[in-house]
Amino acid sequence: MAKITLENLAHSYLPNPKSDDDYALKELNHDWVDGEAYALLGSSGCGKSTLLNIISGLLHPSQGRILFNDRDVTMEPTTQRNIAQVFQFPVVYDTMTVHDNLAFPLRNRGADPAYIKERVQQIAAMIGMEATLGHKARGLTADAKQKISLGRGMVREDVNALLFDEPLTVIDPHMKWELRTQLKSLHHEFGHTMIYVTHDQTEALTFADKVVVMYDGRVVQMGTPQELFETPAHTFVGYFIGSPGMNVLSAEVTGNTALIGGTEIALGKGYGSPKGKVELGVRPEFTALVAGNEGLPVTIKRVEDVGRHKIVRADFQGTEINILAEEGANISPDMNRVVFDTAGVNVYSDSWRVPPQGA
């Protein structure tokens, strides 16, 4: 296992980058703690795979260093980094049996045959392929082949890190849940440093100790699922995590009040006078639809019953606001105002969260 340090790291695919816009990965300075499980989460093109490939040694960065346990590995090849990587699409040896595919990394390092047999059986049970150990990989389905790739990545116990690049893309939904659970069990049992790239927030939040949210080549927040939900550091985090995502409203903030479209809202805490593009961020879980004169006046567009709760889609001066209501809640025509629980209100300046004064 290894602590992974990113020091002034950045990468551009252009030969002579001149501005931030020329960088696929903008400057990063982060420590990845030895033995923790991380998920790199973000939309396509945000730099997740670029960063993973730099960590693995498949790509050399344009600037900066990468260190494993304080040892500079920036220019070392993948073979010298002692990592295992599983890619989005299956990489297997078609002419080998499932058993031999799983055993290959151990045989390649001269492991004891008795240990290889035991470890292959253990991993085969983990990925549900005990019955096919003697089958050639060539005739298997794409999701079976990807399970072999996952198993081969997990078979070694001595790696510095396990890297996964959207490994469950070709796996059926039921097996995805099982494999994520198995990966978590593996992490708890052996304590590998794990980095898991995905664009799926459910995968990220159920797999990782810490989620690293990327946007436009930057890490905009690294935190626990609870931290990302309660205090998104950037409006993208609030929008991307949660279903529906965070409501974001233009506002003028002075002290402990906000003016939104002519309506004054209490914030519960003081924020001074933030400058730039000021916005209020409130998750649907911290909103309520009421009747009366309190809150923002809205027009209800539709109500979606999703079983566990109802999602009310409302319009406030051309901006959609999503409100969560309990499954049995009665939504009457006179409920035309939205109020916010101040415990769930965040203030943003130029998309970045403004901490309340005294916090």
TrEMBL record:
GO molecular function, one term: ATP hydrolysis activity
TM region(s), chain numbering: none
Domain ABC transporter: 4-241
Keyword field: ATP-binding, Cell membrane, Membrane, Nucleotide-binding, Transport
Keyword Membrane attached: yes
Family: Belongs to the ABC transporter superfamily.
Signal sequence region: none
Protein name: ABC transporter ATP-binding protein
